[in-house]
Every structure is written in C-alpha cells, then in structure tokens.
Amino acid sequence: MASETAGAGAITASAPVSGARQFWRRLRTQRAALVAATVVALLVLIALGAPLLALIEGQDPNTYHPHLIDSARGGVPVGAFGGAGGEHWLGVEPQTGRDLFTRLVYGARVSLGVALAATVVQVFIGVTVGIAAGLGNRWVDQVLSRATDVIVALPLMILALALMAIVPSGFPRPVLVALVIGLVAWGGTAKIVRAQTITLKERDFVAAARLSGWPTWQIARRELLPSLAAPVITYASLLVPTNVTVEAALSFLGVGVKPPTPSWGQMLTAADVWYQAAPQYLLLPAGTLFVTVLALTVLGDGVRTALDPRAASRLRIGTGRKREAGA
C-alpha cells in the first residue's frame, strides 16, 4: 500500500503542468515584463475608471474655465505648473482652461480602446485569411497570398488617410479609426498564420482528421486554432502598441478622433505651439503615450518569450551560464 501511494505521488509530481501555469511561470522570471504588465494594468484601470476619477477630482473633460486663463499673455494658464492645484491636479489647457487630468484619463479610454479594437479586427481577418490560404487549394492560396502582399505593400498611413476622408462625418470617430486600422493592417497576421498553417497541416493529427472525413472548417476550428493560439497571441501583443501609435498619429494629423472627444494624439496636435509657454501641455500627453507604448512593447516581448519554449530555454540556459560564471 505504501509503495502504491508513493508511486501515485510520483506520478502526480511528474505530471506536466497546464499551459497557463507554464506561461505564468515563465513570465514571472522576467522582471521587466512583470513591471510592464503592472503599468498596463494600471493604465487599463485608469481608462475604465475615468468617470470615477473625474468625479473624485470634481472636473469635466469638456468644461471651459476662462477665468483660469491669462488673456493678456495669449491664453497661458494662470499660476505655476499650468494652474495645477487642488481643483485641477495637472493644471488646465491653454486658451480653453479645460482640465488636463480628466482629458488625459478620458484620452486613455480612446487610445487604448481603439488600439485593442483594431487589434481584434486585424487578428480576426488575418487568422481567417491565413487559414483559408494555408488549407485551400493552389488557386485559393495564390489569390489570397497576392491580396495579402498588396495589403502589406500599401502604406498604412496613406491608405488610412484615404479611407478616413471618404467616410461621412456622422460615423462614430473612435469606431471608424479602429475599423480603418484593422482593415488596412491585417497582412502581417495573415502571413504568419498562413506559414504556420502550411506547417501544421502536414502533421499527423491533421492528416488523421482529414482521413476521418472532417470538413475543412472543423479541422481549422478543432485542430489548427489551438496550435495557432501561441503565435497569434504573441503577434497580437506586439500589434497593440503599434496601433496606439497609429491612432495618435491619425489624431495628430487631424483625421482621427475629433474634438471635443479627448485623445492623446489630438492633445499633441493642439499642444505643438505651446511647448515654450506651457510645456506641461505637451509633455503630459507625450509622456503618457511614451510610457504606454514602452510598457506594451516590453510586455509583448515578455509574452513572446513565455509562449515560445525555445526562447524560454535559451533564457534559462543563458541565466545558468551567467550564474556558473559568477560562481
């Protein structure tokens, strides 16, 4: 009985941990990724809690405060640090007097929401086209691959500007920006998914599914999608910071989110002439955008390393060698 219990304990101890636990264990070894994840989680909480934060401060992102503006100096905020104080934590905007803190936190909702929505659209279209090209016959693969090449070759910003110009102004602008970014930037995802699909369809489990008479859509859903999850999640985590930058660039060019809806890119557009008279008006949205993109990029790289067993193995081997050299 004791030997059977010991044997059962040995089997339990040697059982492989789940994929989620392995991912978390690998991610915890990367301190930079954990710090970046904390920053991203804080930004998401700030974006979701923007109305509550505005209520705590007692301000509104679109309310003008002309009495806080020095008209004799060209519209510069009254007081030090742009009028920062107990009522306006980060000061107010030049010329308008709108509260900077509430506009920053509401701008986080727009920037992060547009970036995440655009990433979802990119991943959906890219995965669909990539799997169809990888599993289809030669003609389907050729047509979809050439269409993907055209999308990849087209300049993202120019195509986005063209699409934004022809859409009626009554269409919700954040939704439009997310759709445009997703529709013109899915080519990279499709190429990655197609290459992985071509490799996976030669595996035995896919061949067995085909011999069993499964339809193509069922093979893709039950056999390919679970195997494609890791590379797709890795690439999607790196798309989010890119989309944040693209949204800011479109708003900076004046074709993105329109006033009075706050956006970091829109704030940068209005602040480009105030970098000397009111530098905080430029530094606050620029610094927030920089921290967001940096945190998302570091987190995406950490996710890539945690999902790629070969990268994780190289990380452990390199760490072990450093420890041996130090000893």
The H/E string reads: HHHHEEHHHHHHHHHH
What structural class do the secondary elements suggest? Answer: mainly alpha
* First and last CA, distance: 45 Å
- In the CATH hierarchy, the third-tier topology is known as MetI-like fold
Number of strands: 2
Model description:
α3 crosses α13 and α10 packs across α11. It is built from 14 helices and 2 strands. A two-stranded antiparallel sheet has the order 1-2. With 327 residues, the protein is mainly α.
Give me some keywords for this one.
327 residues; mainly alpha; two-stranded antiparallel sheet
Task: Describe the secondary structure blueprint for this structure.
Layout: H1 2-14, H2 19-28, H3 31-48, H4 50-57, E1 69-70, E2 76-77, H5 100-135, H6 138-153, H7 156-166, H8 173-184, H9 187-200, H10 204-211, H11 216-252, H12 264-271, H13 279-307, H14 309-326
Antiparallel strand pairs: 1-2
Concise account of the structure shown:
The chain has 14 helices and two strands.
